[in-house]
Design a protein that fits this description.
Blueprint: H1 13-21, H2 46-49, H3 74-84, E1 86-91, H4 95-109, E2 112-117, H5 120-132, E3 140-143, H6 145-153, E4 158-159, H7 168-171, E5 182-183, E6 192-193, E7 197-199, E8 202-205, E9 229-232, H8 239-251, H9 253-262, E10 266-268, H10 271-280, E11 285-287, H11 291-299, E12 304-306, E13 321-323, E14 328-332, H12 338-348, H13 351-361, E15 388-389, H14 393-398, H15 400-410
Parallel strand pairs: 1-2, 1-3, 9-10, 9-11, 13-15
Antiparallel strand pairs: 3-14, 4-14, 5-6, 6-14, 7-13, 8-11, 8-12
Helix pairs in contact: 3-12, 4-13, 8-9, 8-15, 10-11
């Protein structure tokens, strides 16, 4: 690694980056500012018909074809899923998800779950090899926007399932902040986003920095902060890129050049290291710090504030980012268990599913009937704040990579 780039990478990088890589995707400059998903993007109309569209017919085999999803009511779909008896799900690699999702789903529906936890980019490589050999093993995936939009969707590996949103509590538009199930793909019928959480722009150590010293984003360019700011690397997928994009979109290329380069921001690809630096006062200001890595310090009494919290207001000229973590749900085409896939997708997006899944991911559900008691209130999107929606399809597939490449060149 080039020393001039001021990286300090720990040996734990490979494991931590792999876990986070797929969960953090690109963003959208075109998304209107605001606190929650726009009602116009909702898929609540799926509740009205209560009818599932059929998938392409084929042989119920993992090779050469696919079984068919039933067309009918929720009861019809569930009956067909129970006959299949199993669903293959790929999802987050954390042990909580692996331990809690399969038994909860089986307890509700009596259907076994084969859970494959891991990096979504690794899953993509596996699926590409399988499909080249005419093999189809996957039913449903829980992923970040980067893999779901840039790989699964663009390769046409996943199929529309909006018309299969039939579980009443999932189809009920009034239970969603978005006005209905929040499908994020251009046709609004294939990629369902179930989380929407604020990713704070900055974190400060209150023993070293007063919130009054940082009334806006321009204040970060004050010479007194030169060499005193750290950040998660914005040139790779992750929270660092999400925050780098938010600053870039809000303030422009010249600003982020002055900030990251001119202020000698110290970079890491280890989330814990960034949290350690700001909590211990080594760098009293941090960009793109994840709350879960600060938890031990907060419990120990270290005074820390993040953007949007009571002690530190959001910057009026550069709001934080919004992201969904492992919060995009996609149903695979040519799935070996297409009905069980749709039942699982309905369930994971339901109140019960979110109560099980969201705490394992430390995310805010898009549903409005699942209070996120596991996170502080400032991570819930608020009205009037100009956040950058990093899971918007247009930004994810057009501008995000260009901004990432800009940071890569800038920080070499």
């Amino acid at each position: 690694m080039n020393v001039s780039r001021r990286y300090i990478l720990k040996s734990a990088f490979a494991a931590s980056a792999g876990l986070v890589l797929a969960a953090c995707g690109g963003g959208s400059a075109s998304t209107p500012a605001g606190s929650s998903p726009a009602a116009g993007s909702a898929a609540g109309s799926g509740a009205a018909s209560r009818t599932a569209a059929a998938s392409p017919a084929g042989s119920p085999s993992a090779s050469g074809g696919a079984a068919s999803a039933v067309a009918g009511t929720w009861d019809d779909l569930l009956a067909a899923a129970k006959k299949e008896g199993k669903v293959v799900v790929s999802g987050p690699p954390d042990p909580d998800s692996r331990a809690k999702l399969p038994p909860a789903f089986k307890a509700r529906f009596g259907i076994d779950v084969e859970y494959l936890g891991g990096n979504s980019s690794q899953l993509a490589a596996r699926i590409e090899s399988e499909r080249a050999a005419n093999q189809y093993s996957m039913d449903v995936s829980i992923s970040g926007s980067d893999s779901m939009m840039e790989t699964f969707y663009k390769n046409k590996w996943i199929e529309p399932w909006k018309s299969s949103v039939l579980l009443p509590e999932t189809a009920d538009a009034s239970k969603w902040r978005s006005g209905g199930p929040w499908f994020r793909d251009p046709n609004q019928d294939t990629i369902l986003q179930v989380f929407n959480t604020v990713q704070p722009m900055i974190t400060i150590n209150l023993a070293n920095v007063s919130p009054k010293d940082l009334p806006n984003a321009d204040a970060l360019l004050d010479p007194r902060w030169k060499g005193k700011i750290c950040a998660y690397d914005p040139s790779v997928n992750g929270a660092g890129l999400a925050i780098g994009c938010a600053a870039y979109v809000a303030k422009g290329q010249d600003y982020v050049t002055k900030l990251y380069k001119g202020q000698n921001v110290t970079l890491s690809r280890d989330y814990q290291q960034v949290a350690d630096w700001v909590a211990q006062g080594s760098y009293p200001i941090a960009l793109a710090t994840q709350l879960n890595y600060l938890d031990k310090y907060i419990k120990a009494g270290v005074k820390i504030a993040q953007s949007g919290s009571t002690d530190l207001a959001e910057f009026p000229d550069a709001g934080s980012a919004l992201g969904g973590g492992f919060g995009d749900i996609g149903v695979w085409n040519k799935a070996p268990h297409p009905n069980a896939a749709r039942v699982f997708a309905n369930w994971i997006a339901s109140k019960e599913g979110m109560e099980v899944f969201a705490p394992t991911q430390a995310q805010i559900p898009v549903r409005n009937d699942v209070p996120a008691t596991w996170l502080p209130d400032y991570l819930v999107p608020k009205p009037g704040v100009k956040y950058l929606d990093t899971y918007d399809y247009t930004f994810e597939t057009t501008q995000r990579i260009a901004i990432r490449d800009f940071f890569d060149k800038l920080l070499k």
